[in-house]
């Protein structure tokens, strides 16, 4: 059973690269941020607790995250998956080790200044998690989702102050978490500034390590 995690700073392109991975490989994408946002929308008890942390660009407390992730991963017990947004610190990484064996941790390393410019232009379709950017991948009709035609929104945590806090939080936690996975020999880092340039390298690498039966072959026409 192939299982992988994608790590990277806020706005580094985890969602963008994940969407391409699941287009090319039969993995189930679990975006923890999307799961949390749907809890916030539904005003569940997890959502009510998470909302103020998320809006401020802080991490939701580990105890809540551990319960949420255990529940979500139990539902994916018999499928190969790609986990986006978890773990965010070494204690979450250790907890994940107790739930599941990982085959790969892929880390995106994109300079902060590039990220700050991208995030200003991000728009999302919240119900599906589809991601747009007014210059990189704009919607066909401005402000509307390509598939449903519904309104796009901006994330409350994409306000400049919260973005600054999210980037600092990420850089404080990055080194220990990367070291944790490097010691387990499952870490692979990709550095770059453009998802269109990073993804072909990611794909070539994944083709070598993801079992063939999970490769989605391109249609001939
Ligand atoms: P999230 O939702 O996991 P982040 O902050 O980790 O949020 P985010 O913001 O979702 O990560 P991303 O997925 O890495 O970023 O990036 P993306 O959306 O694909 O790309 C960003 C923008 O750039 C998009 O508009 C995209 O179109 C554009 N783009 C992509 N590539 C390019 C390019 O090459 N060029 C250009 N010009 N543009 C490009 O977590 C949210 C919050 O939930 C809580 C925390 O509060 C967190 O802050 N949370 C947790 N709390 C505790 N523990 C956990 N494990 C938690 N997980 C989530
Ligand atoms: Mg994301």
From TrEMBL:
Record family assignment: Belongs to the adenylate kinase family. AK3 subfamily.
Residues binding GTP: 11-16, 122, 131-132, 195
Region (LID): 121-158
Name assigned to this protein: GTP:AMP phosphotransferase, mitochondrial
GO biological process, one term: ITP metabolic process
Entry remark concerning the domains of this protein: Consists of three domains, a large central CORE domain and two small peripheral domains, NMPbind and LID, which undergo movements during catalysis. The LID domain closes over the site of phosphoryl transfer upon GTP binding. Assembling and dissambling the active center during each catalytic cycle provides an effective means to prevent GTP hydrolysis.
Enzyme class: transferase
Substrates-to-products reaction catalysed: a ribonucleoside 5'-triphosphate + AMP = a ribonucleoside 5'-diphosphate + ADP
Compositional bias per record (Basic and acidic residues), positions renumbered to this chain: 143-157
């Amino acid at each position: 059973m192939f299982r992988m995690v994608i790590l990277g700073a806020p706005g580094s392109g985890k969602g963008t690269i994940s969407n391409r991975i699941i287009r090319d490989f039969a993995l189930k994408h679990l975006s923890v941020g999307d799961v949390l946002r749907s809890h916030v929308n539904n005003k569940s008890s997890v959502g009510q607790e998470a909302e103020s942390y998320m809006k401020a660009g802080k991490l939701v407390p580990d105890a809540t995250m551990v319960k949420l992730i255990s529940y979500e991963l139990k539902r994916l017990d018999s499928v190969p998956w790609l986990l986006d947004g978890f773990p965010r610190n070494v204690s979450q990484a250790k907890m994940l080790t107790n739930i599941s064996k990982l085959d790969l941790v892929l880390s995106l390393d994109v300079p902060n200044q590039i990220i700050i410019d991208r995030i200003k232009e991000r728009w999302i379709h919240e119900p599906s998690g589809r991601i747009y950017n007014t210059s990189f991948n704009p919607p066909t009709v401005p402000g509307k989702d390509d598939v449903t035609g519904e309104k796009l929104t901006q994330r409350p945590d994409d306000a400049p102050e919260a973005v600054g806090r999210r980037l600092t939080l990420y850089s404080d936690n990055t080194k220990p978490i990367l070291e944790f996975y490097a010691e387990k020999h499952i870490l692979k880092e990709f550095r770059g500034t453009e998802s269109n340039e990073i993804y072909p390298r990611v794909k070539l690498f994944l083709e070598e390590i993801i079992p063939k039966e999970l490769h989605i072959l391109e249609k001939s026409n």
